[in-house]
Amino acid sequence: MDAAQKRKRADQDEDPAPDGLEVLDLRAAKRLLIGFERRLKDNLEARMKHPDDPARFADSELALHAETDRLRLLAGAPELFPDLVLIGLASSLSSLLTHENADLAAAAASLLADLTDSDDPSDLAGVQALADALVNANALDLLVHNLSRLSEADPDEAEAVHHSLAVLENLIDLRPHLADLVCDRTKILRWLLARVKARDFEANKQYASEILAILLQSSPANQKRLGQMNGVDGLLQAVAMYKSRDPRTTDEEEMLENLFDCLCCVLMPLENKERFVKAEGVELMIIIMKQKKSAYSSAIRALDFAMTRFPPACERFVDVLGLKTAFAAFMGGITKGSRRIRLLGKFVENECEKIDRLMELYTRYSDRVKAETERFESLDLDDLEMDDDERYNRKLEAGLYTLQLVALILGHIWLSGNSQMRTRIELLLRQNKLTKDDVKDILQEYHDNIGDLDGPEEKEKAQGRTKEIIAAL
Question: Which of 4, 26, 329, 418 is the most buried (most CB within 10 A)?
Answer without folding.
Answer: 418
